């Protein structure tokens, strides 16, 4: 049994004639008759009674069409829904982002996306640990995630978006606040404000300090970037973070070692094709990253072909 045969039965029943049904279907009448006979043979029962030029449904035909019509209706609805998702007239998209990305790169991206595709449902999840986002992408809980590069979990793929320098966030009036850049070792004697243990930003801080020969004395740790900024601003300590994290905070001083940097990438599940909704958001994200890189002389943006 084939889908077009169901449509043919409904058309003949509505027209009451093979000839008129063939005209409606833009089909040669003999071809229509062949298909109906083929279906009747498969079912082992006649669907129509032929009374001269007129045809009517048999009892079996009425029973068959009672179920065939709803099936045809739902199949057409399925086609329409699939086309709507393809054309971004509906759909769902889940994206994960580190807090610093959610506060800087994503607001304009999501605003532009909502303006262009208002009927696509967006869900944004923020998390401090890139590895958790990798897991969520791998198991299909997220369509896309912006994470710290390099990513390590098998079953996901992606590309580096941006390479940004680390900066020192200093309290106003700090002895190094007027410098253009500094060596991280110059802060070895300062108290530090850090993100909580286990977070990506805490790992970046400790790795950078160890590279320069000391362990940071973290006197206050927090889960919130806003708290970190407030603590530094009020002289509780200094902090060292990627440039995006410090966006809007003054004073900041760039670290002079190019190894003190962070790479961010966007990842998705490997082995499949990105859905239209995800591709559209990825395109807007790449556009915003290019703009951010162009506006920021000390930020490097990779060559951003989609490569999906």
Automatic annotation (TrEMBL):
The organism's taxonomic lineage, starting at the top: Bacteria, Bacillati, Actinomycetota, Actinomycetes, Pseudonocardiales
A GO CC annotation given for this chain: cytosol
Gene3D superfamilies attached to this UniProt entry: 3.40.190.290, Winged helix-like DNA-binding domain superfamily/Winged helix DNA-binding domain (1.10.10.10)
Species: Prauserella flavalba
PROSITE patterns (alphabetical): HTH_LYSR
Stretches assigned to the HTH lysR-type domain: 1-58
Keywords: DNA-binding, Transcription, Transcription regulation
Name of the protein this chain belongs to: HTH lysR-type domain-containing protein
Coiled-coil region(s): none
GO molecular function: DNA binding; DNA-binding transcription factor activity
UniProt-listed InterPro entries: HTH-type_LysR_regulators (IPR050950), LysR_HTH_N (IPR000847), LysR_subst-bd (IPR005119), WH-like_DNA-bd_sf (IPR036388), WH_DNA-bd_sf (IPR036390)
UniProt-listed Pfam families: HTH_1 (PF00126), LysR_substrate (PF03466)
Record bears the keyword DNA-binding: yes
Family: Belongs to the LysR transcriptional regulatory family.
């Amino acid at each position: 049994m084939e889908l077009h045969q169901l449509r043919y039965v409904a058309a003949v029943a509505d027209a009451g004639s093979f000839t008129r049904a063939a005209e409606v279907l833009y089909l040669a009448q003999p071809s229509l008759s062949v298909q109906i006979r083929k279906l009747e043979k498969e079912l082992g029962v006649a669907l129509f009674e032929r009374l001269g030029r007129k045809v009517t449904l048999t009892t079996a035909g009425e029973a068959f069409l009672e179920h065939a019509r709803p099936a045809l209706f739902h199949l057409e609805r399925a086609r329409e829904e699939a086309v709507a998702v393809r054309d971004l007239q509906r759909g769902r998209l889940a994206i994960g982002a580190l807090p610093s990305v959610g506060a800087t790169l994503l607001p304009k991206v999501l605003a532009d996306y909502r303006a262009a595709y208002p009927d696509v449902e967006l869900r944004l999840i923020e998390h401090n640990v890139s590895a958790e986002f990798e897991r969520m992408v791998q198991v299909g809980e997220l369509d896309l995630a912006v994470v710290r590069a390099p990513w390590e979990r098998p079953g996901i793929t992606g590309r580096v978006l941006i390479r940004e320098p680390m900066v020192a966030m200093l309290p106003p009036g700090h002895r190094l606040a007027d410098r253009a850049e500094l060596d991280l070792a110059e802060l070895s004697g300062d108290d530090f404000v850090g993100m909580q243990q286990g977070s990506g930003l805490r790992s970046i801080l400790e790795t950078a300090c160890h590279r320069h020969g000391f362990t940071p004395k973290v006197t206050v740790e927090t889960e919130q970037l806003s708290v970190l900024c407030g603590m530094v601003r009020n002289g509780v300590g200094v902090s060292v973070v990627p440039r995006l994290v410090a966006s809007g905070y003054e004073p900041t001083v760039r670290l002079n070692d190019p190894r003190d940097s962070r790479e961010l990438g966007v990842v998705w599940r490997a082995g499949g094709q990105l859905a239209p909704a995800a591709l559209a958001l990825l395109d807007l994200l790449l556009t915003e990253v290019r703009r951010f890189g162009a506006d920021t002389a000390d930020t490097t943006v990779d060559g951003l072909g989609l490569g999906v």
